Amino acid sequence: MRLSDRARDLPESGIRKFFELAEARDDVISLGVGEPDFSAPWAARTAAIDSLERGKTSYTSNRGMAALRERISAHHERYDQSYDPAEEVLVTTGASEAVDLAFRALVDPGDTVAVHEPTYISYGPGIELAGGEQLTVPTRAEDDFALTRESLEAAGAAEADLLVLCYPNNPTGATMTEEEYAEVAAFCRDEDLRVIADEIYSALTYGADHASIATQPGMRERTVVVNGFSKAYAMTGLRLGYALGPTDVIDAMNRIHQYTMLSAPTTPQYAAIEALDRCDDEVAEMVEEYNRRRRLVVSRFNEMGLDTFEPGGAFYAFPDCGGDDEAFAEELLEAQGVAVVPGSVFGEGGEGHLRVSYATSMRELKEATDRIATFVENR
Ligand code: PMP
Q1: Most exposed residue of 138, 202, 240, 368, measured as fewest CB within 10 angstroms of its CB?
Q2: How many C-beta atoms lie closer than 10 Å to residue 128's C-beta?
């Protein structure tokens, strides 16, 4: 069948290609996946089951259940973010849908969207599908992959219409402080840039609390915040996320959403209400466990001589492998049966690095890092 140019031109995901290689063997320890190894908290799962037993299988309101939007709004006060549940919150099918809707609502054909790299792989294709063009802003290992005003200026981002931010970052684990955001916010105000801030890893920070560009002066009215339940609540398969933003943008996103999705799935909305009401302790336990693993992984890589900066969030370490990352990852898989993702998959600045997910049991992480150490010694 003849395909649209847009569909034909979309590239294959570099991550998937790698998984296919890993799946061909059965002795592989995968540090490649970008999702929690935990299950959703039991209370959240029970609420989902209970809603099904009560026959709650209809659509919800387009914007999501009012009770859920109220909880989301209240939950975000912990980040000093304040959004009206009736008009400024939209519940979506994963953060993925929220990102897609934001592009569709904010990008006109020919618009330029600045994206810092290395970063999550979905933004480029999302921009392309919305008819926009990506302008890449490389971030640097020397800055621990934080975005700076200097790098925005050097990349010519002053000419862009929109900026996509992803902190805590996938794949680097980098976070941004209030002070670093102040610089970027000043640039956005000076150059009249709107922002999509993907903050899906906001709950997974180690040490410093999550900061958001949306709380910088003058930024709330030019920012759409994306978040969701996949990471913090280990609910990836339940497909629930949301967007927070000014009424006019959320209205526009909801108009697209009501034709393309109608409403986010109902069962997970019941799970999400329970997650927000009663699962803070479980989230804290998961964060504590990720933090233990993070310390192990970072110190083991540094001991091996693969320089690894201390990631402040998410569940990824981003060691410098000192050369061709694709060759390193392929040879490591071949020789030791450990799957990691080459950093270059995540764009400019990712080359020479590996994305190592520590959303894997401590036992497997110890075994995997032993194998990597053997590989590095023999290489
Ligand atoms: N943003 C980032 C930065 C992610 O890492 C992911 C998941 N890998 C998503 C968005 C998509 O999340 P969801 O499951 O909520 O669609």
Answers
A1: 138
A2: 18
Separation between Cα atoms, residue 198 and residue 222, nearest integer Å: 14
How far apart (Å, rounded) are the C-alpha atoms in residues 10 and 8? 6
Q: How far is the CA of 267 from the centre of ligand 1 (A)?
A: 20
The CATH number linked to 368 is 3.90.1150.10
Among the residue ranges 21-30, 32-41, 208-217, 224-233, the one predicted with the least confidence is 21-30
Report field, pTM of the whole predicted structure over 0.95: yes
Domain extent for 241: 42-278
Neighbours of 139 (CB within 10 A): 23
Counting from 1 in the atom list of ligand 1, the atom nearest the Cα of 201 is 3
Return the residue whose CA atom lies nearest to atom 7 of ligand 1: 34
pLDDT tens digits for range 333-368 = 999 999 999 999 999 999 999 999 999 999 999 999
Q: What is the pLDDT of residues 255-282, one digit of tens each?
A: 999 999 999 999 999 999 999 999 999 9
**ipTM for the whole complex:** 0.99
Ligand 1 centroid vs 114 CA: distance in angstroms? 19
- Lining residues, ligand 1, CB within 6 Å: 34, 94-96, 120, 166, 170, 198, 200, 228, 230, 236, 241
C-alpha of residue 200 to centroid of ligand 1, in Å: 7
Q: Which amino acid is at 29?
A: I
Q: 227: domain CATH number?
A: 3.40.640.10
**Coil vs helix vs strand at 176:** coil
